[in-house]
Amino acid sequence: MPDVSLDGRRISDWKTFHAECQAVFGFPDFYGRNMDAWIDCMGGVRDDDGMTKFALNPDEILCIELLHAETLRRKAPEILEALEECTDEVNERCIESGQKPPLRLLLR
């Protein structure tokens, strides 16, 4: 199972969240830096469409480990909540199209 880590200490606002995600997930230069764009990019982790640096097989799951989640929860709880909701949204869209959920979010 592929995995990737986000560091909650490096995220203090939406700008730093999207910069961290773009770097970690390999989002393209034209990434819109909003949660709709995040969902669009992460929804393609199995498509090999260049929206992320990942190209998962149909049975693979990308494990997103959020390090220092409590720090992020204190500094920017709305960002942590959006990350959880948008991860669920990507998974739900895949389930609705007959695929297995591609993402797992672990808070550390």
Describe the structure in your own words.
44% of the residues lie in helices and 15% in strands. A three-stranded parallel β-sheet has the order 1-2-3, with helices on one face. It is an alpha/beta fold and 108 residues long. Helix 2 crosses helix 4 (77-96) and helix 3 (69-75) packs across helix 4. The protein has helices at 14-25, 35-42, 69-75, 77-96; strands at residues 3-7, 62-67, 103-107.
SSE topology sketch:
Layout (H helix, E strand, L loop, with lengths): L2 E5 L6 H12 L9 H8 L19 E6 L1 H7 L1 H20 L6 E5 L1
Parallel strand pairs: 1-2, 2-3
Helix pairs in contact: 2-4, 3-4
Structural class: alpha/beta
**Major sheet size, sense and barrel closure:** 3 strands, parallel
Oligomer: single chain
Shape: globular
The top level CATH class name: Alpha Beta
Within the CATH hierarchy, at the fold level, what is the topology?
Barnase, Chain D
Beta-strand share of residues: 5-15%
Number of strands: 3
CATH architecture: 2-Layer Sandwich
The total domain count is 1
Q: Give the uncertain stretches in residue-range form.
A: none
Q: How are the strands of the biggest sheet laid out side by side?
A: 1-2-3
Q: Helicity range of the residues?
A: 40-55%
